[in-house]
Write a structure and sequence with these properties.
By secondary structure, this protein is an alpha+beta fold. The chain has two domains: about 180 residues, Jelly Rolls (Sandwich), CATH 2.60.120.280; about 110 residues, Homeodomain-like (Arc Repressor Mutant, subunit A, Orthogonal Bundle), CATH 1.10.10.60. About 50% of the residues lie in helices and about 20% in strands. It is built from twelve helices and ten strands. The strands form two sheets. It has a five-stranded mixed sheet, with no helix packed on it. Strands 2-9-4-7-10 form a five-stranded antiparallel sheet. β5 and β6 form a beta hairpin. α6 crosses α8 and α9 packs across α12. The longest helix is centred in the middle third of the chain and has 28 residues.
C-alpha cells in the first residue's frame, strides 16, 4: 500500500471535508467499530492526534506497518499522519479521543518538548486496575459526558478536557520506558533531556557527539541508552524529528521544497530530497501530492 492509496479522514469513514467542529471529539470504541464488524481499515488523519484507552477486550493495531497487541489497560497515542488499522475482538470497549492540532498548540507553545512526544506514536500497557489507568478512564468518562451535553462554554470545557488527556499521555510516554524496562532514573532522565534538546536543536544538524557532550556522556553511551529505552538509536531520534517537521511542512504549507530544506538546516535541497525519499519511499514533491 502506498501513502497515496491510504485514505485520510478527520474521523474514520467520514470525508475530510466534514471536519468535526469541536476542540475534542470523544466516543466509545464500540460506537464506530461494532457497526463495522470490529475492523477499522488502514487510514490516517491530518492535523489531528488520537488517544485510545482499551478498557476491555483487545485485538491488534498496526501502526505504520508495525503490529501491536491490544489488551485491557493498553493506551495508544497516534500523531497526525500515522497510518493505522485495527482488528478488535468483538465487544471490545474503551475510549478514543480525537483532538485537532490547534487545540494542542498552546501546550506545545508553553512546553516545546511536548511537541516531540506528541509527534511520535506510543503504545503502552498497564493493568486495567492500575491507578493511572483508572485516572485516565475517569478523565475520558468526564470528557465524554461534557461532549454529549450542550452547555455554556462547551468549547472551552472540551479544550480543557483534551489538554488534560494529552498531558496524561505525554507523562506516560516519557516514563513508559522506565516502567517496562526497570531502567534506573539516570538513564530515563538522560533520554528525556536528549529528546528535549533535539526538539530545540534538530534543525541545526548538530553531530551526535555534540548532543552527547552537552549531556555529559559519550556518543556510544547515548546511543546504547536510547536503544535500551526507546528501541532505536539516538541518531534515529534526531532524524525522526527532522522527518516529522518535513512532513508537516509538506502537508500543511505551500512552501517550495527548497525553502523547506533550507529551513530544516539542509544546505542542499537535492540532498534533502534524497534524505526524505530514503525514509519515506517517495520524493518530497510526491509526498505532498499524495497528501
Amino acid at each position: 500500500m502506498t501513502l497515496a492509496s491510504v485514505p485520510a479522514y478527520w474521523l474514520y469513514d467520514e470525508p475530510r471535508e466534514q471536519r468535526f467542529p469541536d476542540a475534542l471529539h470523544i466516543e466509545r470504541i464500540s460506537a464506530r467499530s461494532a457497526p463495522r464488524d470490529w475492523r477499522i481499515e488502514p487510514h490516517r488523519h491530518q492535523d489531528m492526534a488520537q488517544f485510545f484507552l482499551i478498557a476491555s477486550g483487545g485485538g491488534l493495531v498496526r501502526i505504520d506497518g508495525t503490529d501491536h497487541r491490544l489488551i485491557p489497560g493498553t493506551v495508544l497515542l497516534l500523531p497526525p499522519l500515522a497510518i493505522h488499522e485495527f482488528r478488535f475482538e468483538p465487544d471490545t470497549e474503551g475510549f478514543v479521543a480525537s483532538v485537532a492540532s490547534p487545540t494542542l498548540a498552546p501546550l506545545i507553545e508553553a512546553e516545546p518538548a511536548l511537541g516531540a512526544v506528541l509527534g511520535e506514536a506510543f503504545v503502552g500497557r498497564r493493568g486495567p486496575g492500575d491507578a493511572s489507568i483508572i485516572e485516565l478512564a475517569a478523565m475520558m468518562e468526564a470528557a465524554l459526558a461534557e461532549f454529549g451535553r450542550n452547555r455554556g462554554s462547551r468549547e472551552l470545557a472540551l479544550a480543557a478536557h483534551a489538554r488534560l488527556i494529552a498531558i496524561w499521555f505525554t507523562r506516560t510516554a516519557r516514563s513508559h520506558a522506565v516502567a517496562i524496562s526497570g531502567a534506573g532514573d539516570a538513564r530515563a532522565v538522560l533520554v528525556r533531556r536528549f529528546i528535549e534538546r533535539v526538539e530545540s536543536h534538530f534543525h541545526t544538524h548538530e553531530p551526535l557527539d555534540a548532543y552527547a557532550r552537552d549531556l555529559g556522556v559519550t556518543g556510544p553511551h547515548l546511543t546504547r541508552v536510547c536503544r535500551e529505552l526507546l528501541g532505536h538509536s539516538a541518531m534515529r531520534v534526531i532524524q525522526g524529528r527532522l522527518m516529522i517537521e518535513a512532513r508537516r511542512d509538506l502537508v500543511y504549507t505551500r512552501s517550495p521544497v527548497s525553502q523547506i530544506a533550507f529551513r530544516l538546516g539542509f544546505s542542499d535541497p537535492a540532498y534533502f530530497s534524497r534524505f526524505f525519499a530514503a525514509r519515506v519511499g517517495m520524493s518530497p514533491s510526491e509526498y505532498r501530492a499524495a497528501g
